[in-house]
Amino acid sequence: MGWKKVIWPLAVIFLMIQFLYGQDFEIDKSILNEAAVGARAAGMGRAFTALANDANALDWNPAGLALFHKSSAIVASSFDFGKINIIPPANLLNSKKKYQGRENGSFKLNYIGFTFPLQAQSLEITSSIVIRNITDLNEHPIWTTIDESKDTQWDIKEDRSGGLFALATGVGIKVLDNVSLGTTLNFLTGNHDYKNTDVLKTMDSDLEDWYEWKNKFSGFSVDFGFIWNISKLITVGSRLTFPYTINYARIEYSNSNTVPQGGSAQAKFDAHVKKPLHASYGLALNLSPDLIFAFDYVYRPWKKITSYVRKNEEGTFTTEDWSFANANAFRMGIEFIVNSGNTRIPFRLGFFTSPEQIFEFNVTKPDQKGNQVTSHYLTGGFGFGNDNIVFNLAIDYKVMQYKADYLGLLTPFELQRSRFQATFGLEFML
Fold first, then answer.
1. Which domains does the chain have, with CATH numbers?
2. What pTM did the predictor assign?
């Protein structure tokens, strides 16, 4: 029974540290990620900048709207879940502690949109209005440490939910027989809820502590795109997103100590993130009417991102140093179509990389950041459709591996994280 006299004070001290740390509002850096919208693009490794010629064009390249001459309605959603494998360092391998992790699944609606062609003398114009998910902030990892020698279990649960959404309207115009231009206006809104829960389970009872942040987003952005069909074989395209600001508002904080009844208190903070111009460049090789290779290069200059958090009552602000490398990503995909009567059955494969907002633990200099982590994706999918309805399904598998001091012991753990995501799309011709 003597160990209980030690573990309980230590647990209380730890949870108090967590509580104090939780009061410092920090912008979640995953706001920089872009959600995968559209099952066709997702199945081709998101290499879709030069190929955006369907009802999802507004999300990938608005110039592609001019290549789509049908009135249609489209909806896309996705479901994902993950796995975490925790490998302790050599000095902890033979201890009686076990380390486990998992990521619970989440379902979200990514895209609802309508497209309709317009008549303007001899110009071919198609417009679109959509609600789309720009950034998905849903993530639900659970980190567990089991100490068999003391019969205790410590769970750290992180629940992130919400996202950055846009009510977007755009138009694509065919200015030449082989050149299309397009633009999109995005009215941004969204929310982000983050809750951290620490649970220490013993033979006799459980000790739980939590803190929670809630906030809302707003902003406005503009996209511009072009597509040039150089020949029957080669198509190139580009999409630019001009600089814009994500504003944070209604920031609220609550925790299990100060608000035990589960209420919330308005925190005196302002925050925003300024994102610089970023671009994607695409190349599509139309080897035959039924076989396409696509390649994309995406440049997001994260080094130029600025952000701040300001405390209103003090009139001061702090600029957050994220120190990220520029988010250069490479994407490639292939689509092969089988025709059966009036039905088209496409099969797709793809691969792409994506920099993450994670730094490896620096073993030699624990007070400094290590290398920035990059994840890798394998994708695939298929579909079927005719002149009236199109269904697409894509599955992507994400893997990344890095070292992290996730228990605060100044000891590197090897974390192997993987995630499956299934994306569904259904399109109706009106």
1. 2-429 (2.40.160.60)
2. 0.88
